[in-house]
Amino acid sequence: MGHIDSQSLGLNRYRNNDKAIGIGNEFWAATARNGLSGIVANLSEGGYLRTDAGHCFLNFSCCSYLDLDTHPKIIEGAILALQKYGVLDHCISRIRIQLPALLELENRLSTLFRASVITAISASAATAGVLPLLASGHFTGNQKPLMIFDKNAHFSMNLYKPVCADETEVRTSPHNDLNYIADACKSSRRVAYVCDGTYSMGGHAPVKELLALQDKYGLFLYFDDSHSLSIMGAKGEGYVRSSISELNENTIIVATLNKAFGSSGGCIMFGPKGPDAALLVERFGGPLAWSQPMNTAAIGASMASADIHDGPELKTRQDMLQKNIALFDARIGTEQQGNGFPIKLVGASNDKVMAAGLKLYERGFYVSPVFFPIVPKNQAGLRVMVRGGVAEAEMLRLCEILSETDLV
To answer: 159, 165, 196, 220: most buried by Cβ count inside 10 Å?
Structure first.
């Protein structure tokens, strides 16, 4: 077979696997050689993980920022739901038949998050269902918007650029570039901006400024705020939702229930036209329309987590997390220092990041090395994900080792 000229065929406009794999595989191979991927370990006492060889360590690459994933009430909630309904996965599209518990959960989340909420098997499935409908104009008054994806938008959103581009024009903006977005709003009848509320490599969207552009130009905002759900807001509604007094029809927030919420699944927060939007995605939203609703155990676990979010324990856990974030920020300098979020990217050179990760692991801390295409080329680092349940002594020991480690 002859060589395919991607440029002449208009290919690789939104993704390039050859480039990503060609560069990234070198780092993944090094990660495997150093024993920093494919680790098999069981959870043991005190939140530590232990391998069959007896190596004990704390996981600082875990998104369970409030340590709710091991909460006895959440585990019990999953078990009780299975016992009550007698089925793990009622394998049929929710638009045809659904368990009453699913509607009960969605009503509960709607009250907690002050929005019209529907659930999905995952946040990625929610993204796959909603973004193409946004591109086709079905959330913007049947007017196809210019879709702008933030350069740092998560892979789960970037993956659907080609699909959206089959419906409308798609562009990529520099990270958090408000001027770029404003200029697009001035020259286009309708614009939709797709971004993370809180980014997986640290940092967050300028929500206040984006809302100002929305008020001025009718900008449609699509946020994935998975990394801040539960850790912010009086009821754990997250950074974006807690920054908006009333969720309007020009805003959609997607978040996972797998991270700080401590259960499994995803949720979509809609504004006042939520019921109409929900019906649309149930019928035409890809994975949301197939036989993939949240399973019974996930529903039960999520209901138990909602109980915790509706009580005083949530604030206690949020405060513990903020204490550990402040402790880390006071000792280790990062670009995310002082922002109140748990993800900290400690910069390291490409040739030293693996050795640094190995040193930490040998001394009892798993901190994942990150490299291209996870981060831009030549911007490798150690992604530290702070958790509220880690003891102060261990937080201090982690910071001490990081301070002693040759990173650049």
So the answer is: 196
